[in-house]
Design the sequence.
């Protein structure tokens, strides 16, 4: 949401794919190119772009750089920052510079890494060169339903302990399963308390080997249902539900408030139990979608923004969840960024000196605080006020 | 917060107070590598600040104080069947994790397994004002605030004293095979690009002394099957350790060692004595190439005149930004002044 | 998303319904990439989410201007956004209500009003369309090429089946279809006849009401629907198994009768029954034994164009492909199947240049695999594509009709 008095700089029309180099396995893109369009363009060469946020049909590579977006495949293939080679940026003074380069290292400070995930606060990304990966020979999804979140959480741990890094490993709880299934009709087990989707990719032999291992692990952990995708259409269908899970919650509730804390994987059962206590306390339902592979938890708090009381409760509920994430050793945002929404929680993760350091970095790039004013980093002298002020969280 | 840490912070505070620069070092193995020689008298030795502080194999995360030797980390990980994905040089057990991050050193698996910059999840840092700060964390994803942790990679200690590092680790591969064959460097480059474009478990591709080496690592079935398809002589994996630790005969001290970071498809240098690593993305040369390919960066890695600039030139815009950034972390300019660039 | 209705609308049932519909949207933006007009202009206001926000503004501020109308006019009503929306947003219904409200809140100038009025009056009257078309076809040889292409060649429908079969179904003969592509109905009747079904027509029935309703003339549209219900009712009572439409655009309106007339105390129950009985011809054939037909399959690769009404309204995106594949035809690969061809009812007349761009894009997407012909399931799309297509465009039912291949 932009500052009420700010000028909105829309880059979505800069949507040309400037070059795909199949030999060097790179693509040079304007910032408005959508994430999915990159992989579609690369497909002709048997290549694809790794990070695949669920919003991939709509979100732009410029936005991905600004948020350091991940996706269901980021445990194995990394976040945006891991898949970039070069970023062309306009400074706030309007000067153009190129960060990164054709090789894997660049001289001086790694400003490309710093700008990635900086929420558009340091400069305007005008061109991006990404790495492309060869499309795996085979990819299959193992879907398993469990009677409890704990059993599913343990099964996740066991997969990692077995030395397998799945291409994707996602978990959904009962409410999320219900909403996603209503939309996607993917055949999710609606009676399950937790669902795991585990994608294994690689050469045909490797996938066979890993599918067998994962299936055994899930069975040992008491999976109540199990299904392995037999072709790419079925695999896409199984992912469709997961990838639409956020907005599908709109079927259960007028509004939802999506949280984005990351927690140590082993804490997931504990955190979900705490969330269900909070849900009772605030009298608001909460569905949970979890990038189980990398510990990124998305509780979706359901409320009706037409009811100011519910709105206020949803905000407090959300704040409690973020503080819980920090308390168990995690952080307040894994991939969606701080924006305006989580400014209040920044002081629970960072000390005053740390926030000061952030401010100094911002000053180095944008001394007059022109870019995305008021976002990402709380202005220190107002920190205390922020803590005290009941913000109006708005969804529109 | 430990006393040792407070003492380190106090030393930085004191240095700032009397405006006397510090040279930060761990194992001190890289004093004359990577950057310019830093002619600073007062040193801050952090090699005593060491030890693994936190390791949960199931989380794929390890945390260690900056002075911890790489070899210590590696043996702790190996016990749990895990490894540092970025395969850093260990240099006879001297290299520390802090120095490795500061130097952004990574081994032959870089294009496939990533660099230390890619693996670092969080750092504890003392900035130039002597403040102890924590950025990132012990979890896989974190976008709260700017990514100060990754910014330390390659900064050669000029933005702060790294005190503790949190890293993502990976399981050791189930199997690994090295294939070798005789080729010209041009042919090797073409083959590397071709193989890297295939969805096979390739994790290393280099050319040195007339031979192309390919490393396959991962699930046993995939490694074995690919090795059969690709063919070549099966040799032991010694070449990879030699590249990782730079103990290969190619690296025996020479007057100058240049490193070119470029696209894998950039044309091959005509210098007879060269080493190609990272599937073509890293070229080691004895003398600077006649021309630098578009988008590539050249660094005088070791030897030569280390009082002049040894790193690639930055454009004016970036010089300004980098200098301002340096000031943001180290306003008094006391941390490794001149180590990265003479003007910084 | 919550809508705070403007006090002006506190007693307005349409406005309330619109507010409820909007509450399903969680503004995630996943619909944007599937919206043909957003892909065309890149303007958020030409996207589903943008239009939802514009209507939200109308409901909350109690007024709207020409800008809102312009962006709503550009909407094709293709409902691609509905298929994409995980949150279950019923955009089509919202757009219809919005258009009705805008006709009142932001009235058009007199010239435009008159044009739209005549368009509705003409297209919703089959006899008038037929007469105009005949005249056009008569003078076709004399017309300049541009106009010539607009007038389809006269079709020879061929002999209708005469026998009486054990099962009967009713046919909606359609307005434009009965005049421009009579072969479609005839072919459907022959195919069903082979399968043991007689297809009957109620002569008093006419336009399904879509033309009027989607242009915001709600009461005229509802009148069309009531008239059709009256015409069909005796035959329904006499045991007709289904009401068959062979134009998915009309079919998708028929299934909405029940919903649209739910507040009509006289017609509500009948409308519901009609909607329940309504089926597209594909819906019938997908369950039948196609080996009873003797079909000429050796006609080259067939590119299937799936009309928006079929995939996004009737939600049967693959049904024609399934039937043709089962019947033994070789289908050509196509791209971007979810995007509208630009025909969209009266859109090709009211938004000509945009419609032509969409058609160009669609023709390219249909021909990536060099097909021998294109088939569609809706007369509007068929005629629209045929105007510019270098290869023949037919209704798919013609492929199953043995008579068609014997040169009739
Ligand atoms: C081609 C080659 C040749 C080599 N030759 C030699 C050799 O001749 N001799 C040798 O000893 N090693 C050599 N090495 C090994 C290499 O230097 C080590 O592998 C490296 O990892 C050492 O780490 P360190 O802890 O010793 O770093 P250090 O040398 O202590 O530090 C490296 C840089 O990081 C900074 N730094 C270190 N720790 C911190 C910290 N905690 N916070 C902030 N900044 C920090 C330092 O200021 C310095 O700029 C060689 C390596 C290569 C690649
Ligand atoms: C349904 C849904 C699912 C999602 N799933 C995921 C997921 O799985 N993983 C994930 O990581 N995220 C996810 N997200 C979050 C979001 O999609 C990503 O953060 C995405 O990268 C945002 O891209 P955008 O193009 O929409 O950016 P915008 O929303 O337009 O912008 C985001 C921020 O980036 C800045 N920005 C945009 N472009 C530039 C530029 N060129 N230069 C500088 N700054 C710029 C903007 O100022 C703004 O602060 C999801 C969101 C939704 C709605
Ligand atoms: S996809 Fe649905 S919920 Fe999302 S913006 Fe579009 S209409 Fe709204
Ligand atoms: S109906 Fe079609 S044109 Fe209209 S908003 Fe939806 S997708 Fe866009």
Sequence:
């Amino acid at each position: 949401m932009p500052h009420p008095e700010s000028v909105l700089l829309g880059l979505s029309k800069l949507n040309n794919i400037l070059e795909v180099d199949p030999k060097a396995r790179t693509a040079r893109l304007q910032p408005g190119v959508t994430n999915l369009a990159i992989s579609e363009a690369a497909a002709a060469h048997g290549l694809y772009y790794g990070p695949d946020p669920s919003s991939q049909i709509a979100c732009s590579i410029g936005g991905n750089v600004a948020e350091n977006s991940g996706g269901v495949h980021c445990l194995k293939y990394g976040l945006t920052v891991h898949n970039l080679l070069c970023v062309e940026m306009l400074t706030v003074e309007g000067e153009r510079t190129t960060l990164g380069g054709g090789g894997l290292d660049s001289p001086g400070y790694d400003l490309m890494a710093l700008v990635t995930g900086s929420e558009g606060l340091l400069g305007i990304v005008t061109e991006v060169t990404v790495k492309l990966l060869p499309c795996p020979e085979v990819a299959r999804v193992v879907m398993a339903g469990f009677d409890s979140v704990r059993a599913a959480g343990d099964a996740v741990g066991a997969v990692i302990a077995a030395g397998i890094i799945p291409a994707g490993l996602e978990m959904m709880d009962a409410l999320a399963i219900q909403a996603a299934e209503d939309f996607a009709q993917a055949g999710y087990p609606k009676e399950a308390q937790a669902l795991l989707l585990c994608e294994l990719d690689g050469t045909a032999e490797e996938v066979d080997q890993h599918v067998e291992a994962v299936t055994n692990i899930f069975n040992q952990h008491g999976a109540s249902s199990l299904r392995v995708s037999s072709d790419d259409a079925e695999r896409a269908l199984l992912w469709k539900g997961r990838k639409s899970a956020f907005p599908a919650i709109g079927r259960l509730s007028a509004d939802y408030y999506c949280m984005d804390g990351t927690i140590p994987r082993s804490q997931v059962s504990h955190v979900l139990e705490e969330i269900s206590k909070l849900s009772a306390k605030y009298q608001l339902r909460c569905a949970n979608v979890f990038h189980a592979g990398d510990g990124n938890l998305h509780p979706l708090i359901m409320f009706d923004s037409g009811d100011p009381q519910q709105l206020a409760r949803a905000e407090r509920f959300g704040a409690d969840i973020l503080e819980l994430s920090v308390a168990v050793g995690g952080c307040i945002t894994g991939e969606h960024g701080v924006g305006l929404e989580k400014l209040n929680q920044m002081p629970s993760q960072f000390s005053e000196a740390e926030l000061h350091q952030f401010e100094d970095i911002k000053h180095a790039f944008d001394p007059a605080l022109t870019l995305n004013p008021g976002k990402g980093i709380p202005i220190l002298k107002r920190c205390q006020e922020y803590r005290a002020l009941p913000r109006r969280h708005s969804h529109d | 917060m430990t006393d040792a840490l407070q003492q380190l912070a106090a030393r930085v505070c004191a240095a700032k107070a009397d405006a006397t620069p510090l040279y930060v070092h761990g194992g001190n193995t890289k004093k004359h590598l990577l950057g310019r020689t830093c002619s600073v008298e007062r040193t801050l030795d952090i090699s005593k600040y060491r030890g693994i502080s936190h390791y949960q194999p199931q989380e794929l995360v390890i945390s260690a104080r900056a002075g911890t030797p790489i070899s210590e980390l590696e043996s702790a990980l190996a016990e749990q069947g895990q490894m540092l994905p970025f395969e850093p040089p260990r240099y006879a057990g001297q290299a520390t994790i802090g120095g490795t991050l500061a130097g952004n050193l990574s081994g032959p698996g870089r294009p496939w397994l990533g660099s230390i910059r890619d693996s670092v999840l969080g750092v504890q840092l003392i900035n130039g004002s002597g403040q102890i700060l924590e950025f990132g964390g012990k979890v896989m994803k974190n976008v709260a605030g700017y990514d100060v942790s990754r910014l330390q990679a390659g900064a050669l200690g000029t933005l702060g004293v790294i005190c503790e590092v949190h890293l993502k680790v990976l399981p050791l591969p189930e199997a690994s095979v090295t294939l070798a064959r005789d080729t010209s460097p041009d042919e090797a480059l073409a083959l590397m690009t071709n193989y890297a474009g295939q969805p096979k478990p390739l994790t290393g591709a280099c050319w040195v002394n007339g031979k192309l080496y390919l490393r396959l690592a991962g699930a046993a079935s995939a490694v074995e099957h690919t090795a059969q398809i690709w063919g070549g002589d099966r040799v032991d994996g010694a070449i990879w350790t030699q590249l990782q630790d730079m103990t290969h005969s190619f690296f025996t001290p020479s007057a100058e060692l240049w490193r070119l970071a470029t696209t894998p498809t950039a044309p091959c240098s005509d210098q007879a004595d060269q080493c190609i690593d990272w599937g073509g993305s890293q070229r080691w040369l004895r003398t600077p190439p006649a021309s630098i390919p578009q988008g590539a960066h050249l660094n005088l890695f070791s030897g030569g005149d280390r009082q002049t600039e040894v790193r690639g030139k930055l454009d004016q815009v970036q010089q300004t930004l980098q200098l301002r950034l340096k000031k943001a972390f180290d306003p008094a300019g006391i941390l490794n002044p001149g180590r990265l660039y003479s003007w910084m | 998303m919550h809508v705070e209705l403007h006090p002006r609308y506190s007693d307005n049932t349409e406005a309330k319904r619109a507010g409820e519909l909007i509450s399903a949207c969680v503004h995630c933006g996943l619909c944007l990439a599937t919206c043909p007009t957003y892909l065309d202009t890149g303007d958020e206001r030409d996207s589903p989410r943008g239009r939802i926000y514009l209507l939200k503004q109308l409901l909350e501020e109690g007024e709207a201007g020409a800008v809102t109308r312009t962006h709503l006019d550009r909407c094709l009503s293709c409902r691609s956004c509905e298929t994409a929306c995980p949150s279950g947003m019923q955009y089509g219904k919202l757009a219809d209500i919005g258009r009705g409200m805008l006709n009142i809140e932001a009235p058009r100038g007199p010239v435009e009003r008159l044009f739209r009025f005549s368009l509705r009056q003409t297209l919703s009257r089959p006899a008038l369309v037929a007469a105009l078309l005949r005249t056009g076809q008569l003078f076709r040889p004399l017309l300049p090429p541009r106009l010539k292409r607009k007038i389809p060649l006269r079709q020879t429908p061929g002999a209708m089946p005469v026998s009486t079969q054990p099962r009967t179904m009713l046919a909606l003969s359609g307005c434009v279809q009965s005049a421009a592509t009579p072969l479609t109905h005839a072919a459907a009747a022959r195919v069903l006849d082979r399968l043991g079904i007689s297809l009957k027509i109620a002569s008093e029935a006419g336009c399904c009401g879509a033309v009027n309703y989607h242009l915001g003339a709600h009461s005229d549209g509802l009148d069309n629907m009531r008239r059709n219900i009256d015409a069909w009712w005796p035959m329904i009572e006499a045991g007709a198994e289904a009401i068959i439409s062979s134009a998915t655009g009309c079919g998708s309106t028929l299934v909405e009768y029940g919903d649209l007339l739910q507040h009509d105390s006289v017609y509500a129950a009948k409308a519901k029954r009609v909607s329940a009985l309504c089926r597209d011809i594909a819906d019938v054939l997908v369950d039948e034994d196609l080996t009873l037909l003797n079909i000429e399959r050796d006609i080259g690769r067939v590119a299937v164009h799936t009309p928006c009404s079929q995939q996004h309204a009737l939600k049967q995106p693959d049904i024609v492909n399934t039937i043709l594949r089962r019947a033994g035809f070789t289908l050509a690969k196509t791209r971007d199947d979810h995007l509208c061809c630009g025909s969209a009812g009266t859109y090709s007349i009211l938004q000509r240049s945009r419609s032509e761009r969409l058609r160009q894009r669609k023709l390219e997407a249909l021909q990536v695999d060099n097909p021998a012909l294109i088939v569609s399931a809706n007369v509007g799309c068929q005629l629209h594509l045929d105007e510019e297509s270098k290869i023949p465009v037919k209704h798919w039912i013609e492929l199953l009709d043995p008579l068609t291949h014997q040169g009739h």
